[in-house]
């Protein structure tokens, strides 16, 4: 249930009013927007009489929320959320609420030379974040599994050298202690419904990039975001990365409509991964443009300095110069959408 508070209501009275629900064991989520204050009630609100509430002088209106996700729901938080990522080494990066950001880097961290070289080049082209997998979820157990803890060390070195905040995937809770200096923790498609992991990430105090599962619906993705948010972590960035369909030409099918659906249902920022969606480097630019035009808040793009020799996902990786070209093109598209093109330079 959400309660929209009348404009100009005294803050202390609203606080006392909220307390009456908390005393009934219902949690109250406050959303103070530019023009509206909204109280979102989470928990068993069955015993609350909506009609009686409408009569209260503080109340503008009462709406029952049908969807099972509450904190991720736009009804609870009408304004777009801007996820802020900050550290003393690089200042603040913003994703969402009019701020467009590009996360770029290799599928996997492979060597010192590889990650530093790519980090320097994507930074020059204007990427806001460096991506790179240290723990890799591979379909075959015989494929390269990532450099693990050493890969994380290399990413941190690249962060130190370039000042780019890093985004990297966690596969298991047992790895969390290694993620202390990681800026954004990625939850991969295969782990979108690893509820134990999501619950713990709700308490980790770091922004989470949550990728849509291979066959997950929009509402399942939002329920997974809710798991993280229910633990007190509101900094969730959703990622559409293509879903399984009958089509085999592309690795997955980019679900452009999910961008609009997610943004209608939720206030959380939505970024698009055209690389895993297409599986083909030559298609990344057109899918990126489509994502921007559909309202995405950012992109995550795979870039490799030698795609032919990449240890994972070479066919879908852009060369540094192709990425530079993509960024030039995208800038115009992002500005047409009225968003700021956050630049890592
Ligand atoms: C990745 O980002 O390299 C990755 C494994 O992505 P996904 O979880 O979307 O397959
Ligand atoms: Mn990959």
Layout of secondary structure:
Layout: E1 2-5, H1 11-22, E2 27-32, E3 37-42, H2 50-54, E4 59-63, E5 83-87, E6 91-95, E7 99-105, H3 112-125, E8 129-131, H4 149-162, E9 166-170, E10 184-187, H5 195-201, E11 208-211, H6 218-230, E12 236-240, H7 256-265, E13 270-272, H8 274-278, H9 284-293, E14 298-302, H10 320-336, E15 340-341
Parallel strand pairs: 7-8, 7-14, 7-15, 8-9, 9-10, 10-11, 11-12, 12-13, 13-14
Antiparallel strand pairs: 1-3, 1-4, 2-3, 5-6
Helix pairs in contact: 3-4, 3-10, 5-6, 9-10
Fold and architecture overview:
- Helix 4 (149-162) links the parallel strand 8 (129-131) and strand 9 (166-170).
- The chain has helices at residues 11-22, 50-54, 112-125, 149-162, 195-201, 218-230, 256-265, 274-278, 284-293, 320-336; strands spanning 2-5, 27-32, 37-42, 59-63, 83-87, 91-95, 99-105, 129-131, 166-170, 184-187, 208-211, 236-240, 270-272, 298-302, 340-341.
- The protein is built from ten helices and 15 strands.
- Helix content is 31%, strand content 20%.
- It has 345 residues and is an alpha/beta fold.
- Helix 3 runs parallel beside helix 4, helix 5 (195-201) crosses helix 6 and helix 9 runs parallel beside helix 10 (320-336).
- The longest helix is centred in the last third of the chain and has 17 residues, at 320-336.
- The protein folds into two domains: 2-63, Alpha-Beta Plaits (2-Layer Sandwich); 83-342, Alpha-Beta Barrel (TIM Barrel).
- The strands form three sheets. It has an eight-stranded parallel β-barrel with strand order 7-8-9-10-11-12-13-14, surrounded by five helices.
- Phosphoenolpyruvate (PEP) binds at residues 107, 133, 137, 188-190, 211, 241, 273, 276.
- Manganese (II) ion binds at residues 107, 276, 302, 312-313.
């Amino acid at each position: 249930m959400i309660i929209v508070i009348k404009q100009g209501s005294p803050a202390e009275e609203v606080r006392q009013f909220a307390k009456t629900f908390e005393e009934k064991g219902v949690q109250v989520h406050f959303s103070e927007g530019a023009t509206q204050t909204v109280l979102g009630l989470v928990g068993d609100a069955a015993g609350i009489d909506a009609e009686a509430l409408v009569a209260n002088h503080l109340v503008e209106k009462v709406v029952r929320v049908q969807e099972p996700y509450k904190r991720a729901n736009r009804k609870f938080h009408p304004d777009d959320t801007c996820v802020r990522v900050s550290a003393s080494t690089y200042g603040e990066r913003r994703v969402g609420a009019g701020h467009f950001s590009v996360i770029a880097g290799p599928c996997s961290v492979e060597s010192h030379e590889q990650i530093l070289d790519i980090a320097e080049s994507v930074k020059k082209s204007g990427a806001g974040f460096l991506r790179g997998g240290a723990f890799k979820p591979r379909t075959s157990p015989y494929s390269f599994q990532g450099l693990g803890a050493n890969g994380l060390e290399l990413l941190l070195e690249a962060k130190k050298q370039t000042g780019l905040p890093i985004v990297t995937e966690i596969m298991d809770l047992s790895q969390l202690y290694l993620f202390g200096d990681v800026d954004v923790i990625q939850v991969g498609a295969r782990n979108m419904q690893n509820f134990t992991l999501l619950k713990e990430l709700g308490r980790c105090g770091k922004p989470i990039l949550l990728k849509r599962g291979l066959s997950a619906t929009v509402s399942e993705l939002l329920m997974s975001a809710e798991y993280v948010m229910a633990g007190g972590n509101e900094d969730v960035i959703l990622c559409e990365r293509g879903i399984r369909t009958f089509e085999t030409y592309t690795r997955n099918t980019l679900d452009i409509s999910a961008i609009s659906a997610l943004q209608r249902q939720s206030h959380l920022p939505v970024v698009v991964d055209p690389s895993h969606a297409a599986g083909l480097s030559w298609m990344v630019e057109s899918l990126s443009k489509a994502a921007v035009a559909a309202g995405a808040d950012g992109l995550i793009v795979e870039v490799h300095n030698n795609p032919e020799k990449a240890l994972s996902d070479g066919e879908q990786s852009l060369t540094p110069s192709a990425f530079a070209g993509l960024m030039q093109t995208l800038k115009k598209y992002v500005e047409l959408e009225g968003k700021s093109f956050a630049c890592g330079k």
